[in-house]
Amino acid sequence: MSTPLNRRVFLRTTAIAGGTTAFTGALWHQAFADPAQPGAGPYGPPLAADANGLQLPKGFTGRVVARSLQRVPGTRHTWHPAPDGGACFGDGDGWVYVSNSEVPLVGGASAVRFGADGTVTSAYRILNGTTLNCAGGATPWGTWLSCEEHDLGLVYETDPLGAKSARSHPAMGRFKHEAAACDPERKVVYLTEDQSDGCFYRFRPKTWGELSEGTLEVLLGTGTGPVRWAQVPNPRLWTTPTRNQVSGAMRFDGGEGCFYASGICYFTTKGDNRVWSYDAAAERLDLAYDDDLVTEGEPPLTGVDNITGASSGDLFVAEDGGNMEINLITPDGTVTPFLRLLGHDESEITGPAFSPDGSRLYFSSQRGKSGFVAGTDGYTYEVTGPFRH
Does domain 34-384 have CATH number 2.120.10.30? Predict the structure, then answer.
């Protein structure tokens, strides 16, 4: 197998020569022309690292909110190991940041509550007794979908405020779940699968706002361009995995983050360093970013993982490895580093999410400075600054 660099050079060469190995005709033009290219970002480059190892653009500041196996400052709650996917929810004048724990058997999820001025007021568990809770997604009705990443994994719906008990939703399928994103226009939930031959799914609930019943569908297609959906026959109990139940299901190399905005569902695949864009109205799949289609210099974004977006239309993509950055993809198709974390070389950045007013960005370093696989050295951060709206 060729190295990623050799494959990138090969793809560039065939594009320039009019080759048809990867794509043909208009399909190749679409894939080659549209993916984001490196350029200057709206905030400028990351500057020298602060005391926490954060390199941030001018005007931005950062702080550590919590550390794994230590009490969250100002509370009696001990923060979980291996912090992963996360999201923010409004809570009166303040807000709540929820975070999964990607460890076996005791994974679950926790939350930190902030007051109107950003002060931590409490921290608590919202999900217990689950395993390898990786990413997930927020719902329009104010709950957090926490996804288990194993072959029989479930989606759990949790209350960010900690008042209601969590519920599992087997109708959303038992597979190696990664992330979820809600589409309120079509009243569906998109789901990624972290397998090297995984699929992209959507769940159509019988009643919007209630996820206990509905239909799981899988995306069918052969690449960028028009796609369609087909029902998965046995999403709950199976002898054949969900990804192998429908002929023609499109394969994705390690599904990761998922984010929906303005008719487009963006999702990432780590095996080929791609950010996909699914146009829900047109039922069309395209590439927002592909490191093999960067035409000048080395790709700034590698190890694509969790993804979120700002009200400005900017996408923020976290790296699993790479050089521990969160990269920005702007609406005009520029990809550029936004922040970088030094001294966490064996970790990954997880759980990027904005506060409800868009002024603060939260994320974690899952394995911290030690890189220990159990995630006992995880860090959760907050970055504050002049994010554009």
Answer: yes
Task: List all residues 6 or more positions away from 133 whose beta carbon is below 8 Å from its beta carbon.
Answer: 84, 85, 100, 101, 102, 107, 108, 109, 127, 146, 147, 148, 149, 156
DSSP label at residue 29: H
- pTM value > 0.85: yes
- Break the chain into its structural domains and give their ranges: 34-384
Backbone angles phi, psi at 288, to 5 degrees: -85, -25
Q: In 315-374, where do the E strands start and end?
A: 315-319, 325-329, 334-341, 349-354, 360-365
Is there a contact between 46 and 300 (Cβ–Cβ < 8 Å)?
no
Residue with tokens 């479930």: 154
DSSP assignment string, 75-124: SSPBPPSSEEEEEEEEETTEEEEEEEE-STTT--EEEEEE-TTS-EEEEE
Q: Which tens digits make up the pLDDT trace of 325-371? A: 999 999 999 999 999 999 999 999 999 999 999 999 999 999 999 99
Cα 286 off chain centre by: 18
Distance CA 161, CA 387 (A): 26
Q: What's the rounded Cα separation, in Å, for the pair 243 and 108?
A: 25
Q: What is the pLDDT of residues 59-100, one digit of tens each?
A: 999 999 999 999 999 999 999 999 999 999 999 999 999 999
Q: How many residues does the chain have?
A: 389
Q: How far, in Å, CA of 262 to CA of 260, rounded? A: 7
Q: Which of 185, 186, 153, 158 is nearest to 170 (CA)?
A: 153
Q: Is 333 exposed, middle or buried (0-12, 13-18, 19+ CB in 10 A)?
A: middle
Residue 206's SS3 state is strand
Closest listed residue to residue 255, CA positions, set 316, 329, 202: 202
Q: How many Å apart are CA 307 and CA 315, to the nearest integer?
A: 7
